[in-house]
Amino acid sequence: MIRTSSRTKMAIRPSTDRAGLRRMTAQDIRDAFVIDDLFQPGEVAMTYVEVDRAVVGSAAPLAVPLPLPADRRLASAYFCERRELGVINIGGPGWVELDGARHDLDNLDSLYVGRGVRAVTFASAAIDAPARFYFVSYPAHAAHPSRRVRKAEARAIQAGAPKTANRRVIRQSIRPGLVETCQLVMGFTELETGSVWNTMPPHTHGRRSEIYMYFDVAPARVMHIMGEPSDPRTVFMDDGEAVFSPSWSMHSGVGTADYRFVWSMGGENLDFDDMDHLTLADLR
């Protein structure tokens, strides 16, 4: 039997409306929207976001594998009893065990975990280069098969241009056509050297919320832009931090150097093109 550690903590983030955001200071915005306690060595960290009832978390196993617990506030016997889960490894090689079945994940591999999986355990292959598992979960109405998606298997989309400093590759790993899900879509974006902008001009999703987790940032920083186009707000993001956007909020960012970020969405549909595009003239 594998010895596991169960060190876990879970925070709660209430939802915030448009009027509330307008009154916030910079620190208020961080406190309300930024998740900055991810990837603590030897721990599972989770935050329950009231927006679309998402759970955002990380597992950073060292010598001892880490089980994914069912926090009492989920009111479930096990974490995936009524939920689906998306996982992306941004660290060294590792594996995730689902009800005894092992799924090896190299750097930037993804794993979809379907509703009904009772036991989820995270492990690193080597202590000197530990895995860093980032995960996002939404409620699920049906049970779909779990599936690993290698980085090379993700749908890759070239976007942007050097002239606008936003040349990037969008890799869609948990998406229709690759993985069947209830509402979760997930992947990551890699900016090319010399590019610093993501998703500009920005957009909103009237039917879905979105979560960004920035990584491979340090020693740079990213200024994340959110809120209504007529009244944008900004917050500076560091390596390994996540920020969530309600459906009414745009989401974009600019860094002091190139970086990567994991994006994930949940809501009414799985259509990637279901977005409300903005123009630069819309921004104030």
Which key phrases capture this entry?
Jelly Rolls, single chain, 2 helices, 2 domains, 284 residues, 5% helix, seven-stranded antiparallel beta sheet
Detailed description of the structure:
The chain is mainly beta. The protein has two domains: 9-17 and 35-143, Jelly Rolls; 152-282, Jelly Rolls (Sandwich), CATH 2.60.120.10. It is 5% helix and 44% strand. It contains two helices and 24 strands. The strands form five sheets. The protein has a seven-stranded mixed β-sheet with strand order 1-3-4-11-6-9-12, with no helix packed on it. It has a seven-stranded antiparallel β-sheet with strand order 2-21-18-23-15-14-13. A four-stranded antiparallel β-sheet has the order 5-10-7-8, with no helix packed on it. A hairpin with an 8-residue loop joins strand 13 and strand 14. The longest helix is centred in the N-terminal third of the chain and has 8 residues, at 26-33. It is globular, with a radius of gyration of 18 Å. The chain starts with 7 loop residues before the first strand and ends in a 7-residue tail after the last strand.
Q: What is the CATH architecture descriptor of the largest domain?
A: Sandwich
The Rg value, from CA coordinates, equals 18 Å
In the CATH scheme, the class of the largest domain would be Mainly Beta
Percent helix, as a range, is under 10%
Number of helices: 2
Strand content: 35-45%
What would a concise description of this structure say?
The protein is mainly beta and 284 residues long. The chain has helices at 18-22, 26-33; strands at residues 8-13, 34-35, 44-49, 54-59, 66-67, 83-89, 94-98, 101-105, 110-113, 120-124, 133-139, 147-149, 155-159, 168-174, 185-191, 197-198, 203-204, 208-215, 222-228, 231-237, 241-245, 250-255, 260-267, 276-277.
